[in-house]
What does this fold into?
Amino acid sequence: MQSLEHKTQQLVTLAQNGDASALDHLYRVYGERVRWMVRLRMGRALRARMESMDLVQEVLIHAFRGLSKFTYTNEGDLVRWLSRITQNALRDRLDNLHAGKRDIRKEVPAGGSRSGDGSDSFGARAPLDAATPSVILSQREDLGRLEKAIDALKSEYREVIVLTKLEGLSYKEIGARMGRSPDAVRMLVSSAMAELTAVFMRT
It folds into this structure.
């Protein structure tokens, strides 16, 4: 049986060569992941000001139009590439919205440097097997309820959850971003997930 990793690599190669069906498949597979990246980074206040699906579409169009610039090594590289484009697009929107007395950029967790490259339907989602944050994050279900719980967390907890559970970064990679040791990141992730679970179960 063909592994998911190999299938993704094939899809990227086909899409880079102009295969429209492969590109559409990538949209459907990764569109939901990008939606989570956008929604969980925005925070409650920004969601009230910005239309998240417009931003998701912008990220996907920008990413897959520039797919020829992307060199595939593994699926993690693709997810991180999409994440960088998501962060850049969100910061651009924030720059456009920034006006008046309040800097709404403070409402978005910082998440790495400004770098990166230049369909409303994302497919059906599988039913939830267990209503816990870890399962919801892995299966990307029940976004609304999880958003409320994550909104209640402090910023470093929100950020480390996005980096580990959505972007799949290692503790070492997260440590380099956050200025912490891998062991400190491991403890931070453990504390963040414990707090998320406690808050989630109260919602």
Summary: Confidence is low (pLDDT under 50) at residues 109-132. The chain has two domains: 1-124, 125-203.
